[in-house]
Design brief:
alpha+beta, Cytidine Deaminase, domain 2, eight-stranded mixed sheet, two-stranded antiparallel ribbon, 4 helices, about 20% helix, binds zinc ion
Length: about 180
């Protein structure tokens, strides 16, 4: 770490989010690097998306893998339609390696992204239809700004999506004395 002013963490360090039920959702630096590659910096770039996989250790849900968009997905500037059969085989394959499917990610052409009504509806539906023992599914949206500001992270419980605030953002105000 360089001394002096606080550098926004972006993708060099993990980001942690605390849920209302006391779980910790952590995005590893590697996962953040994968997501950062799909920022829609240019107006002609399309929305991209994939799935999020984690190892779950008690209350710690570590998102260690964000899958990349597949050829079969439909991509557009405003909208992303994943190819479900491919997704299911990815879930089965990674499960064999001890990784759990915990949610979805996609990109938005917004600085600080927020989920659309359709985004919220589909992740809640996905949560209700899936067999799992998680308190919620993670919805991550990659915006144009640096992380954590440019990364939306929400938890879907089947009814609503609650935004989670990164611990880095919560601390920003107190970091000046370091
Ligand atoms: Zn969206």
């Amino acid at each position: 770490m360089k001394s002096g002013k606080v550098v926004p963490s972006d993708t060099s360090a993990a980001l942690r989010y605390l849920t209302a039920s006391g779980d910790i959702v952590e995005f590893t630096a590697e996962t953040l690097q994968t997501l950062a590659k799909y920022r829609q910096r240019r107006f002609w770039q399309s929305e991209a998306g994939g799935q999020l996989f984690a190892d779950v250790l008690g209350k710690l849900v570590r998102v260690v893998h964000a899958s990349k968009p597949k050829k079969a997905d439909l991509r557009a500037r405003f909208g992303f339609a994943p190819h479900r059969p491919t997704e299911q085989s990815e879930i089965n394959e990674l499960h064999a390696h001890g990784l759990h499917y915990v949610g979805d990610w996609h990109s938005h052409a917004q600085d600080r992204p927020a989920p659309s009504t359709t985004d919220a509806k589909s992740i809640n539906e996905c949560f209700r239809k899936s067999k799992h023992d998680l308190s919620g599914f993670v919805l991550a949206i990659v915006g144009k700004q640096a992380f954590p500001g440019g990364l939306y992270v929400g938890l879907a419980d089947g009814v609503q999506v609650v935004e989670l605030i990164s611990q880095t953002e919560q601390r920003t105000g107190e970091l000046t004395d370091r």
